[in-house]
Amino acid sequence: QKEVEQNSGPLSVPEGAIASLNCTYSDRGSQSFFWYRQYSGKSPELIMFIYSNGDKEDGRFTAQLNKASQYVSLLIRDSQPSDSATYLCALEVGGGADGLTFGKGTHLIIQP
Amino acid sequence: KAGVTQTPRYLIKTRGQQVTLSCSPISGHRSVSWYQQTPGQGLQFLFEYFSETQRNKGNFPGRFSGRQFSNSRSEMNVSTLELGDSALYLCASSPLTSGITDTQYFGPGTRLTVL
Q1: Below-50 pLDDT ranges, chain B
Q2: The predicted structure's pLDDT at residue B98
Q3: With an 8 Å Cβ cutoff, is A58 touching chain B?
Q4: Which pLDDT does position A29 carry in this prediction?
Q5: Which ranges of chain A have pLDDT less than 50?
Q6: Measured between alpha carbons, how far is B44 from B46 in angstroms, rounded to an integer?
Q7: Contacts of A100 in chain B (CB under 8 A)
Q8: pLDDT (0 to 100) of residue A95
Q9: DSSP class per residue in chain B
Q10: How far is A41 from chain B (nearest CA, A)?
Q11: Chain A residues with CB inside 8 Å of B105's CB?
């Protein structure tokens, strides 16, 4: 059974600091990992994906994947109040036909 | 390029009724997936369609069904509605151009309330 675990938060981070969001998963067959941001009352918005071990950077965002330890993380540098949202971690086992398995999300609050 | 569109955006039904939700994927995207989002269960996979074929289905009862048309537009149907079906129903489309990663883009969702 595929499970994705995230700390529900809220995680409170001062403006300008680094926000670190973590996610662990149980299925070693998981191939691709995604981070989505969801504002209250809105649909999930893709931030980035990663499928190779290591770091992947995109602007202020860095995704980190460690398949041996079965965790994936998202770092947000220079956090802004507009980054306040729920961050969803999702994984895909392969092929896309199985859909994405989501964690329940971490509620991030950036304090001005 | 226009994003994923879903209609209607809001819907109120009563128990026992049925409902049909519609999704138009991003132009050129051939895969459409449906998800249910509730506060208690989070986002859960309902089913995925590609080339008018349902390739997989999540752990939902048979009251939940769907289909995809030749233009990749998709509909999902919920029959005999129950109070617990109240949720945000999200459609996501994917281009399936990458052999490694199937990036999904979500529509705005349909908020279904069952009274």
Answers
A1: none
A2: 52
A3: no
A4: 82
A5: none
A6: 6
A7: 33, 35, 43, 45, 92, 104
A8: 57
A9: ----EEE-SEEEE-TT--EEEEEEPPTT--EEEEEEEETTTEEEEEEEEETTEEEEE-S--TTEEEEE-TTS-EEEEE-S--GGG-EEEEEEEE----SS----EE---EEEEE-
A10: 9
A11: 46
**Residues B91 and B106: beta-carbon distance below 8 Å:** yes
Q: Is B60 on the interface with A (CB under 8 A)?
A: no
Distance from CA of A104 to the nearest CA of B (A): 5
Whole-number pLDDT of residue A28: 84
Token pair for residue A106? 């971490």
Residues in chain A with CB shorter than 8 Å from the CB of B101 are 31-32, 49, 51, 92
The CA-based diameter of chain A, rounded to the nearest angstrom, is 42
Residues of A in contact with B103 (CB under 8 A): 34, 46, 49
Query: What pLDDT was estimated at residue A96?
Result: 58
Verify whether the Cβ–Cβ distance A46 to B104 is below 8 Å.
yes
Residue with tokens 């999540």: B58
CA distances from B29 to A9, A70, A90, B41, B52 (A): 35, 31, 20, 28, 13
Q: Retrieve residue B101's tokens.
A: 């990663």
**B4 to A23, A60, B1, B48, B74: CA distances (angstroms):** 27, 26, 10, 15, 11
Q: Give the model's pLDDT for residue B2.
A: 83
Q: Given this model, what pLDDT does residue B101 score?
A: 59
